[in-house]
Amino acid sequence: SRGSLQGKSLMDDYSPCAKISLGDGDAYQGETLNGMFHGQGALTLKSKGFEYSGTWFENKRHGEGRETWNN
């Protein structure tokens, strides 16, 4: 299992405002499609001090976005 989602099943077709907990303080908040990060969203990996906010296409960063590293 990839994590838990507030509000809808991970496999619902489209969600405009999913909140997915990935464990260890890591999380994704944004649009999903068929259980994948898809559209506008932000991924926070607290364990690595990393955040990406921008556009996603089928779980991959796509188009414009912003990476932040906190070392």
Task: Explain how this protein is built.
There is one protein chain. By secondary structure, this protein is mainly beta. The chain contains no helices and six strands. The chain has strands at residues 4-6, 14-23, 26-33, 36-45, 50-57, 60-69. The chain has a six-stranded antiparallel sheet with strand order 1-2-3-4-5-6, with no helix packed on it. The chain starts with a strand and ends with a strand.
Question: Which SSEs are present, and which pair or pack?
Answer:
Elements: E1 4-6, E2 14-23, E3 26-33, E4 36-45, E5 50-57, E6 60-69
Antiparallel strand pairs: 1-2, 2-3, 3-4, 4-5, 5-6
Number of helical elements: 0
**Distance between termini?**
29 Å
Mean pLDDT: 87
Biggest beta sheet summary: 6 strands, antiparallel
Topology as a string of helices (H) and strands (E): EEEEEE
Given helix and strand content, the structural type is mainly beta
Q: Measured on Cα atoms, how large is the radius of gyration? A: 12 Å
Helical content band: under 10%
Strand tally is: 6
Q: Any idea what the shape is?
A: globular
Q: Can you tell me the residue ranges where pLDDT is under 50 for at least 5 consecutive residues?
A: none
Relative strand content: over 45%
Summary?
With about 70 residues, this protein is an all-beta fold. About 0% of the residues lie in helices and about 70% in strands.
List keywords for this structure.
71 residues, mainly beta, 6 strands, globular
